[in-house]
């Protein structure tokens, strides 16, 4: 009887439902056995939230003992009467060695016992303050009592990404008879029928904005669990045109291709990919043999620029953007590199200041700009690459090719292309005419008050 979690790939902050399949006619207790260091989910049995309690703050002379499990004790007053409960998380202040956050596993009148993973330093009779952090009973440690079985819970919100180990006990509530292990008639007990353990990998939602220089775009949101992309979305479009672009088949296909891929396989080494673009563009532009250009482009030379760190790679990428534009549209006097300016292979992403922006710009420059530019030849309209030696017609540059595009490149390029397309396909059930007005003439949907 395996433990089933829903959703199958949860993320931090998402409500998770736990089910022990095959447990018909029985109760099931779910125990949080372990959690990531950054999580504050209490260890122990999951119970229903029993209502909000007032936060508790107590300042007393306390003693802290490293006793495995460690304890906090007092000589007067009562922790139980103050309202502390197993599963409570408390902040300790005012001590020399024990300030911090701890989880209670057991409450006595004058002693609090902490969970096994919490560590104290022995410190006697110091005036300290205990403050409860969680004001809702969400979990308790230890075995199930007859009273507590009614409050068992099978939902939990994991508060941090990482691995959680969950133990499930299939329990039957029985009333004994003399023939049952010599029980007196009417004796009640809980019988643990089986135990299952599972590991829940709680992931994160990761965002990457994909936005053009004009401000059109959306955010690529990946649900990442255990180093694997489990879901991919384009969310929060900045404009109506950006919303429609995200729904194009040319975009949804590479978006779906990201799912179930490991993080390492969807992208690539940023610094190496920038250098790959620099080296190939430099060889293409200089073209010492006059194979693709009428004269070599020595104006937009990037030979001396090489990336040796992430920061320098970002700087080089921004410089490459300017050099590529200068190569496509010759603005200097003298003999031309190309027969005509290349107005087709234009970057649409602005210069970058962060690693995320840089990866979007890199996809634009590698695939939409340089990759498409070198394919153009003298047979195109207008003619671009001509040869000073043999003259037209001349094919494109098939020598200075980039390494293969990544899955992330495919998605970014497809979405950028859709953003600049002035004749997109209207989403199913939506007006084709309205979309034409938006993309071809700049109309905006009216807001009716």
Shape descriptor: elongated
Summarize the main sheet. Answer: 6 strands, antiparallel, barrel
**Helical content, roughly?**
10-25%
Number of helices: 9
Number of beta strands = 17
Rg over alpha carbons: 33 Å
- Percent of sequence in beta strands: 25-35%
- Structural class determined from secondary elements: alpha+beta
Q: Which strand order does the major sheet show? A: 5-6-9-8-7-10
Distance between the termini: 56 Å
Number of domains: 4
Mean pLDDT score: 84
| Element-level helix/strand string | EEEEEEHEEEEEEEEEEEHHHHHHHH
Q: Enumerate the spans where pLDDT stays under 50 for 5 or more consecutive residues.
A: 135-144
How is this fold's topology laid out?
Layout: E1 3-6, E2 15-20, E3 27-34, E4 44-46, E5 57-65, E6 71-74, H1 79-82, E7 89-93, E8 100-107, E9 111-114, E10 123-132, E11 139-140, E12 155-157, E13 162-175, E14 188-202, E15 204-211, E16 217-225, E17 228-235, H2 240-246, H3 249-257, H4 263-266, H5 270-286, H6 310-328, H7 355-373, H8 407-420, H9 432-441
Antiparallel strand pairs: 1-2, 2-12, 3-4, 3-13, 4-11, 5-6, 5-10, 6-9, 7-8, 7-10, 8-9, 13-14, 15-16, 16-17
Can you summarize this structure?
With 449 residues, the protein is an alpha+beta fold. It contains 9 helices and 17 strands.
Top keywords for this entry?
449 residues, alpha+beta, Elongation Factor Tu (Ef-tu), domain 3, Sufe protein. Chain: A, 4 domains, six-stranded antiparallel β-barrel, five-stranded antiparallel β-sheet, elongated
